[in-house]
Amino acid sequence: MQNAVVEVDGRRVWGSTATSYPPLLRAGTRVERCHDIELTEALLLGYDGRWGEPRSLAAAHARLAGTPVPPDPPPRAALPPGDGQGTLFEAAPPPADDPEILSKVYADQGHRLSLVGQPGRFKLLVAAESAGALIAVEMGAVGLPWRADIHHKLLVELLGEPSAVGGPPRRLAELTARINDAFGVRSLHPESPAEVLRAFTRAGIQLPNTRAWSLRDVDHPAVPLLLEFKELYRIWTAHGWAWCDAWVRDGRFRPEYVPGGVVSGRWATRGGGALQIPKVVRRAVVADPGWKLVVADAGQLEPRVLAAVSGDTRLAAAAASGDLYAALATDSFGGDRAKAKVALLGAMYGQTGGAAIPALATLRRHYPTAFDYVEAAARTGEGGGLVRSWLGRTCPPSSAPLGFSEDGAGAGARARGRFTRNFVIQATAAEWALTLLAMLRGRLAGTGAELVFFQHDEVMVHCPADRADEVSEAVHWAATRAGSLLFGDTAVRFPLDVSVVDCYADAK
């Protein structure tokens, strides 16, 4: 394979895993470890506060050579399986990476890695990010088991029969008529927020938007109909018949995962909406005959991460239990679990009003080290500074287009503070989950089990039924190993809820 050109320290070195690995995988070559130049360059540029600069191999080499830096190529359009050329007439493979350029850029990145504040942690981040890129390609190739017949049946149950002329299905058409009747009009389109807002205005009701939480506070006969319509319309447009016909082939849903696609390090997908599968649609995710789905979900991950990174011994002691919120309640909140949860989430997400005020006061009094950790991140953000995750992923600068003001004061600064407050926790949680995934991939090698899904703090393995217990043990081991790799000797536990099921919808 022409892109497999450099191997250093037992790692395949290439410009982009997403480009170079698929041809190897199709040819039956499984790569154990790699170094992804593009993903590493993005991390290093971010660390230097140069977020958003070109990160391709060509760009990295141009910076090293002191020549003009070319822009990154635009993202490829997402194509459902079967939309491209057939396997008999494969598209031309990408140009081979130049071995000399790869070696020079790899050496330069290694030097830059040694200069960061915590090089050991940052190297772990780079290794986990590159391992994640391998897993993303493999999961896209294997695909998530998907029963199109079950999917079509549940769509009929929810939406009614599809329209013969391509319009909304029967249930949506009926709801549209009832919503029009409730407003006393004839041609309102419920999927149009502008039309719905005008209808409420004519009824003497002023609303800021048509989001569900705004509608629930309104006493009007159209509200329950609109809420039902919104839920069903979302399923029809995002995971309806057209989606299933386009994205499901040979019993598998094969999305394209994008490691590090979110600024916090969480994954995204290109096409298919794999990370937003509604619970009701999960009924179509069914293991093959003789196989099982092992679904693992990390409970209370971000609060546990806060306990680990802050070094708050009292919070870490609470996080050594199975239910962190219950332990906090017993320790400091008079047994009130709900109050303990409000306090901890308020501290991490910047919820400082209403019921959170007394709860936060209790949290600050009993867990000052953890509270000060997120407060310091918020103050840094409000002042326009950069914060980093535990392993060194750096948040975008305040000039990045993240949806809040850049004025450095007032509402814009507070929004920036809420972002950086959570970034240090969410990005670290993403690192823990990615490390778990990398550990699990290695543990499952040669077992026949397949990683088929990963979403934030949830992972799914498709395996022969007689290996389900072995896979469950491997998942627990990987969670423990990820915690020790990131945080060393800590009292904090990272428990998983693990379900062995035939259908994804039956998981805990």
TrEMBL record:
It is an enzyme of class 2 (transferase). Gene3D superfamilies: 3.30.70.370, 5' to 3' exonuclease, C-terminal subdomain. InterPro entries: DNA-dir_DNA_pol_A_palm_dom, DNA/RNA_pol_sf, DNA_polymerase_A. Residues 64-88 are annotated as: Disordered. SUPFAM superfamilies: DNA/RNA polymerases. Signal peptide: none annotated. It comes from the Bacteria. Residues 278-467 form the DNA-directed DNA polymerase family A palm domain. Residues 68-78 have a biased composition (Pro residues). Pfam families: DNA_pol_A (PF00476). Its EC number is 2.7.7.7. Keywords: DNA replication. It catalyses: DNA(n) + a 2'-deoxyribonucleoside 5'-triphosphate = DNA(n+1) + diphosphate. This is DNA-directed DNA polymerase. It comes from Phytohabitans aurantiacus. The gene is polA.
